[in-house]
Amino acid sequence: YEAGTAPLFETYALTLQHKHLPEILRYTGLTRRPIFVPSVGNFRQGMLVQLPLHLDLLPGAPKAADLHDALAAHYAKSNTPEQWVSVLPATADGKLDATALNDTNKLELRVFANEEYRHAVLIARLDNLGKGASGAAVQNLKLMLGL
What we know:
Layout (H helix, E strand, L loop, with lengths): L8 E3 L9 H8 L10 E3 L5 E8 L9 H15 L6 E4 L18 E8 L4 E8 L6 H13 L2
Parallel strand pairs: 4-5
Antiparallel strand pairs: 1-2, 3-6, 5-6
């Protein structure tokens, strides 16, 4: 981005071997690797992380609302008082601005779905500079220490 030569939009990890796939498998209980195709855009900061899911392949074949409710219940229990992670409904227009959380330490999770086809996309929106690894590490320490 800084060099001014970044493409407007680009997908990466198209070998389907992204470094975070082992974590995704471990913490979700999935038995099959999800198709994870991250992307970046030509803007200073902000990120949308997308995880497409076949609902029928998930344990219990949940509905999209079940995924949303499970995420909301999990983060209601584990969030710090600051409520950095929010689980929100899908947007009415089916769009998300990757830069909407810039200059915050927040992360939003949303489940977009088509129940007819039993497809869902879990999307996390964050400021990749503010919510980067160091910010996440501090939040994890606070959770583990009960602070």
